[in-house]
Specification:
The protein contains seven helices and eight strands; from the N terminus they run βαβααβαβαββββαα. By secondary structure, it is an alpha/beta fold. The protein is globular and about 45 Å long. It binds flavin mononucleotide (FMN).
């Protein structure tokens, strides 16, 4: 790939500061560093009033539209939400309700979440993964969940969490690369054609 690879993070926390934003930003930076690309994290909290402006995309402000387009144009997406009532926040869903139905097909998506404890860690698998299944995205097989104890003063302080992030990047970047490298994609598609067997 000759152009610079872009990693876009989306933090669905309605608060600032936010542990979720810290996590999403760290994971997005880690993927960008490992892949030689650039990262950017979009916080949804400031967009909350504007996201409720109407049901259709043409009723949204330029700042929200720019965020939606950045997500749709990313090479790799890192999404994250705090657990609210055992699932992602309404803010997270409201944002993705405005993403084009076919805009994330084949997009590599890294799933992350934070919560008050580990009790709802499976929200990554049981709530977030199906949402991106709807979008026909390529959710990577390692999600990253962190609880409040993994942070201190809104910084990652847990060696275990750091190891989980490093492992996720090391194990899934080759899969992502295989998908976003046009030659690799072509080869995969050729192989996947029924008449190729
Ligand atoms: C309205 C509300 C609901 C919450 N529900 C849950 C929950 O169901 N499970 C959980 O583990 N934590 C729950 N929490 C705790 C947050 O998920 C946790 O503090 C999270 O790390 C906050 O992320 P943030 O700092 O990015 O906002 C809830 C917090 C709030 C404010």
């Amino acid at each position: 790939m000759s152009r610079t690879l872009t990693v876009v993070g989306v933090s669905g926390s309605p608060t600032h500061p936010s542990r979720t934003t810290v996590l999403v930003d760290d994971v997005a930076r880690s993927y960008a560093e490992a892949a030689g690309g650039v990262s950017r994290t979009i916080q949804l909290a400031p967009l909350l009033p504007e996201l409720g402006a109407g049901p259709f995309r043409n009723s949204l402000s330029p700042i929200v539209t720019e965020a939606l387009e950045a997500v749709e144009g990313a090479d790799i997406l890192v999404v994250g939400s705090p657990a609210y009532r055992a699932t992602y926040t309404g803010l997270f869903k409201l944002f993705f309700d405005h993403i084009g139905q076919y805009a994330l097909i084949d997009k590599p998506v890294v799933l992350t979440a934070t919560g008050g404890s580990d009790r709802h860690a499976l929200l990554v698998e049981h709530q977030m993964r199906p949402l991106f299944g709807f979008f026909q995205s390529l959710t990577v097989p390692l999600g990253i969940y962190a609880s409040e104890n993994d942070f201190a003063d809104y910084e990652i302080r847990s060696e275990d969490l750091r190891a989980r992030i490093d492992t996720a990047v090391a194990r899934t970047l080759p899969l992502i690369r295989a998908n976003i490298d046009p030659q690799a994609r072509l080869a995969t598609r050729e192989f996947a054609r029924p008449d190729a067997f």
